[in-house]
Amino acid sequence: MGFDRSKENSCCFTGHRSSKLPWKGNDGDIRCVALKNRLYDIAEALYRAGITHYICGMATGCDMYFCEAVLKLRSEHPEITLEAAIPCEDQTKLWDLRQRKLYNHYLHQCDFQTVIQREYTDGCMQKRNFYMVDNSSVLVAVFDGTYGGTMQTIAYAVKKGLEIIEIRP
Predict the structure, then answer these.
(1) What is the pLDDT of residues 132-155, one digit of tens each?
(2) Pairwise CA distance, residues 152 & 33, whole Å
(3) What is the CATH number of domain 7-167?
(4) Which of 51, 84, 91, 124 is most solvent-facing, going by the fewest CB within 10 Å?
C-alpha cells in the first residue's frame, strides 16, 4: 500500500511548549485533557475531509499532544501516516529524562522522520516550521496570542495560503 504524502492531503501542527501552557506540563490537568481531546477531534475531522498525512515538529508540550492524538487516530485508520519533522539531530539534548523517553516512544512510532539539519543553530526551529508549512495544506495551531515560534509559523502559513485551525489553550 502506497502512502500519500502530497501537500493536499497533509496537515502540520504548531503549538506552545509545556512551559508556556497554563498547566506547566501537568498532563493530568483537566485543561490539558480537554486540549488533547480537542486535538483528536480535529485530527479525526481532518481525516474525514481527506487528510491522511500528519506532520509533527516533535517539541515538548502541544507537539507531543498532537502526536499522541494522531497515533490514536492511526490505530483506527491504518492508512494514516505520521511524519516527525526534526529540526536537528540533538533536539532533545537539554530535555529531562521523562521528556526524552516520551519523544523516543513517539518517534519510533512515526512512519517518516525528516531531519532538517545535523546540529542546532539559532534558525533550525524556524526552518523546521517552514518545512512543515511548505508540505501541508492545513495548519493546526494551539496559540495563546503571545509572540514566538507559534506566531511566526501561523504568519508563514497565512502567507502560504494554508487553512488554519487555531485553538486557544
Answers:
(1) 999 999 999 999 999 999 999 999
(2) 26
(3) 3.40.50.450
(4) 124
